[in-house]
Design goal:
Blueprint: H1 5-12, H2 14-18, E1 22-25, H3 26-37, E2 40-46, E3 52-57, E4 64-69, E5 74-81
């Protein structure tokens, strides 16, 4: 559960981000992420509203992209950045 906290925080703000998100068919989106940035799926989780949150990243370059995938197959980018770190560590209980 502890390692899912950042993912859950992202899901909590997906409604706000989705209003300005870039959306494409899921297959086309992940093909573009692989071709353009060399990103592959690192994790995914099912949201309570039936959407899926996916995190794609390139371990060599550090680029990453977060997608919200709708049940109809549309994927919307809700965040992207650099310096991806896949290190799993315990967070302090107060976080």
């Amino acid at each position: 559960m502890i390692r899912l906290l950042p993912l859950l925080a992202l899901v909590a703000c997906n409604t706000v981000h989705a209003q300005t998100a870039q959306c494409l068919n899921h297959g086309a989106f992940i093909e573009g992420l692989a071709d353009r940035y060399g990103e592959r799926r690192q994790m995914s989780g099912l949201n309570g509203d039936g959407t899926v949150v996916e995190i794609y990243a390139n371990g060599e370059t550090g680029t990453w992209t977060a997608l919200i995938v709708q049940p109809n197959g549309m994927a919307c980018m809700v965040a992207a950045g650099e310096n991806f770190d896949s290190t799993v560590s315990d967070l302090p209980p107060e976080l």
